[in-house]
């Protein structure tokens, strides 16, 4: 099976690769930098979901040989208890309804939340906060905030598993 992923982000690609290995489905993965069609820094669940679906659906139209495409999107969402990291995934299949799954949520420290509300993007803010580079490709904000216990690839793997599981159920496949 050929599966397209709507991102060149290393943590996202690693998550999808690992998940197909874990569920023992043979898949050739093609990564394409797909537009999310939403802001660079989505600011609600709705916007983050839309970004994930747009990426999945867009890359399915781009990669003709793929029967399936996965879009993963990171965002933040306001709650009465602070600004939280939120992550969403979507899986698009030709002629079928796009399926969604959400991932882990974790509160962002106030100093990061303030900078995002002032218009900055989480990726560069995290690099600045940690005095590191390209955290979004490695441990991600979630890795930093959990002391390395859950990195960005592990978090997206869970979403990928929720997506692929729903796809398999719809297809009537069993493991
Ligand atoms: O190449 P793409 O697929 O766009 O990967 P990305 O790292 O930019 O990821 P998203 O667009 O899905 O995330 C939206 C924004 O939030 C940032 N972001 C999201 N989750 C993050 C995380 O865990 N660590 C660091 N930055 C994160 C990211 O850099 C963007 O500014
Ligand atoms: Mg991005």
UniProtKB/TrEMBL annotation:
EC number(s) reported in the record: 3.6.1.73
Catalytic activity: XTP + H2O = XDP + phosphate + H(+); ITP + H2O = IDP + phosphate + H(+)
Highest taxon listed in the record's lineage: Bacteria
Annotated InterPro entries: ITPase-like_fam, NTPase/PRRC1, YjjX_NTPase
Non-canonical purine NTP phosphatase/PRRC1 domain: residues covered: 6-158
Keyword Magnesium assigned: yes
UniProt KW keywords: Hydrolase, Magnesium, Manganese, Metal-binding, Nucleotide metabolism, Nucleotide-binding
Cofactor(s) the protein requires to work: Mn(2+); Mg(2+)
NCBIfam families, per database record: PRK03114.1 (NF002850)
Protein name as annotated: inosine/xanthosine triphosphatase
Native source organism of the sequence: Siminovitchia sediminis
């Amino acid at each position: 099976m050929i599966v397209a992923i709507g991102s060149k982000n290393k943590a996202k690609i690693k998550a999808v690769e690992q998940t197909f290995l874990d569920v023992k489905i043979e898949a050739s993965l093609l990564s394409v930098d797909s537009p999310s069609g939403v802001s660079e820094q989505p600011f609600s669940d709705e916007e983050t979901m839309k970004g994930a679906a747009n990426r999945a659906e867009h890359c399915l139209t781009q990669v003709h040989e793929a029967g399936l495409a996965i879009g993963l999107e990171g965002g933040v969402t306001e709650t009465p208890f602070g600004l939280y990291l939120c992550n969403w995934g979507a899986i698009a299949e030709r002629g079928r309804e796009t399926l969604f799954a959400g991932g882990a949520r974790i509160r962002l420290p106030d100093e990061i939340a303030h900078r995002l509300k002032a218009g900055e993007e989480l990726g560069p803010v995290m690099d600045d906060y940690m005095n590191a580079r390209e955290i979004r490709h490695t441990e991600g904000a979630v890795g930093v905030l959990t002391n390395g216990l859950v990195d960005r690839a592990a978090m997206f793997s869970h979403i990928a598993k929720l997506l692929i599981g729903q796809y398999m159920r719809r297809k009537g496949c069993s493991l």
